[in-house]
Amino acid sequence: MSFSELNPGLGQIAHLVSSLPFLLEEASSGVVCHSNPKMAAGRTLKTLSNLIARSGNVVKTASITTSNPLFSRNIKALPYFQTIAAYRAAVLHEIAKPLIIEDVTTTTKLKDLEIRIEVYTCGVNASDILICNGQYGIEQKMPFVPGFEVCGEVKEIGAKVKNFNVGDKVIGLKKDGYSGFAEECVVLEQDLWGVPQGMTFEIGASLLDTYGTALLGLHRRAEVEADDTVLVTAAAGGLGLAAVDLAANVYKAKVIGVCGTEDKASLVRDKGAFASLKYQAKNLRNKVMEVTGGKGVSIIFDAVGGDVFNESLKCIAHEGKVIVAGFASRQIPNVPTSLLLPQSFSLIGVSLSHYRDANNEVYRQVGNDVIELYEEGLISPHVSAIFPLEEVNAAMDFLLQRKSTGKVILKIR
Ligand SMILES: NC(=O)c1ccc[n+]([C@@H]2O[C@H](COP(=O)([O-])OP(=O)(O)OC[C@H]3O[C@@H](n4cnc5c(N)ncnc54)[C@H](OP(=O)(O)O)[C@@H]3O)[C@@H](O)[C@H]2O)c1
């Protein structure tokens, strides 16, 4: 039984008392506080490599390892240097069962490049639901705390963290280990970005995953420009609406959104789409050809898969580019390669998580760019619902039932 299970107040006291030697140790070891790494890059939106060349703030971290020692329920004696943290979290104990809000304790001393943050908000995403339902293709160890798109404040930094100070407002992606549906979370420095104090916690948890992925897909992979016509499927979803916003408002492309209901279609038009249609997979091509004067679209951004993807391919123009970004339908289409020939079109995959490991510089820069685009008022994330931590199961259900538009946010503090 943990301190906090005995008495929530005791857990907090234990945390304060046991933190003292650690803090003293930190002070005496000369841990230096650095200023917040606000992006210095002047963004032209010409090419991502231009952006990277101008930025002096890319955090380069090679071969980082991390652990996720979330739970320690039987604390007996602790070495003086360990901290005891007791905080509330939404915990999954059994696949496909509701999450339970409970106090958990951890006794983790931060590793060199780790940062402990107080989580204020966390985005609720499709992968949280898939993992909790055992549908993510990995065997998840229990207990498990979902949530990876966090926004909060830095509480403690590891010995070799260079770019953050205690108290900084940050947003982050914690795909290795999740654990963001909790009052506290430990994230590697390479997965955190500093944001201005003025950014709300709700917006902070709405930016990185969707806008980052959409920016990578549209800009870096498909090289979207103003003369493109972009078809976005699931256009009112988190990823889709970010793609609509970027394509229409940053790149000034002509956007056609497709989605499930008239209300969603209306939101997509409000976001800047030139046209938005309800899916009726069978006549999608006719409608798109009508809207594009028979030319078809030069870019497709798809996060649905299944029939919607197959039908959207019939709308692609000569030398078009089809971005495969996700599978909300949970149906992964098989595309015969012979299909690519008549229109000489390209199929392009995009995964933000993969960039983290394969091209960390680009991963970091995408985060910087998204923050800067928001600060300049060029993009405006849409949050359709905010649920308190206690209603985490309702939040996940809201997303699952396709009731959401844009982002769903869990408010933790
Ligand atoms: N590549 C990456 O790095 C990356 C990053 C983020 C997300 N993703 C993936 O992209 C997909 C969409 O993510 P998201 O954040 O946009 O999710 P979301 O906010 O839940 O939106 C998904 C939308 O897909 C539409 N949809 C169409 N058919 C569906 C079906 N059979 N079941 C459920 N939804 C269906 C729904 O809109 P309508 O009701 O309008 O049809 C729904 O609102 C997910 O598979 C996610 O894992 C990939």
What do these coordinates show?
Helix 9 (306-313) links the parallel strand 11 (297-302) and strand 12. The protein is an alpha/beta fold. It starts with a helix and ends with a strand. The protein has 2 domains: 3-35 and 67-199 and 382-411, Medium-chain alcohol dehydrogenases, catalytic domain (Quinone Oxidoreductase, Chain A, domain 1, Alpha-Beta Complex), CATH 3.90.180.10; 209-354, Rossmann fold (3-Layer(aba) Sandwich). The longest helix has 21 residues, at 8-28. Strands 3, 4, 5, 6, 7, 14 and 15 form a 7-stranded mixed β-sheet that branches. The chain has a 6-stranded parallel β-sheet with strand order 10-9-8-11-12-13, sandwiched between helices. It contains 12 helices and 15 strands. 46% of the residues are buried. Residues 125-127, 209-210, 213, 234, 236-240, 259-260, 264, 303-304, 325-329, 350-353, 399, 402, 404 line the site of NADP nicotinamide-adenine-dinucleotide phosphate. NADP nicotinamide-adenine-dinucleotide phosphate binds next to helix 4, helix 5, helix 6 and helix 10.
Helix content: 25-40%
List the quaternary state of the chains. Answer: single chain
* Morphology call: globular
CATH topology of the largest domain: Quinone Oxidoreductase, Chain A, domain 1
Low-confidence stretches: 1-81
**Proportion of residues in extended strands:** 15-25%
CATH class membership of the largest domain? Alpha Beta
Topology of helices and strands:
Blueprint: H1 3-6, H2 8-28, H3 48-54, E1 85-91, E2 100-106, E3 114-124, H4 126-132, E4 149-157, E5 169-173, E6 184-188, E7 192-194, H5 201-221, E8 229-232, H6 238-250, E9 254-259, H7 262-270, E10 275-278, H8 284-291, E11 297-302, H9 306-313, E12 316-324, E13 346-349, H10 352-358, H11 360-375, E14 383-388, H12 392-400, E15 407-411
Parallel strand pairs: 8-9, 8-11, 9-10, 11-12, 12-13, 14-15
Antiparallel strand pairs: 1-2, 3-4, 3-6, 3-15, 4-5, 5-7
Helix pairs in contact: 3-11, 5-6, 5-11, 10-11
The structure holds NADP nicotinamide-adenine-dinucleotide phosphate.
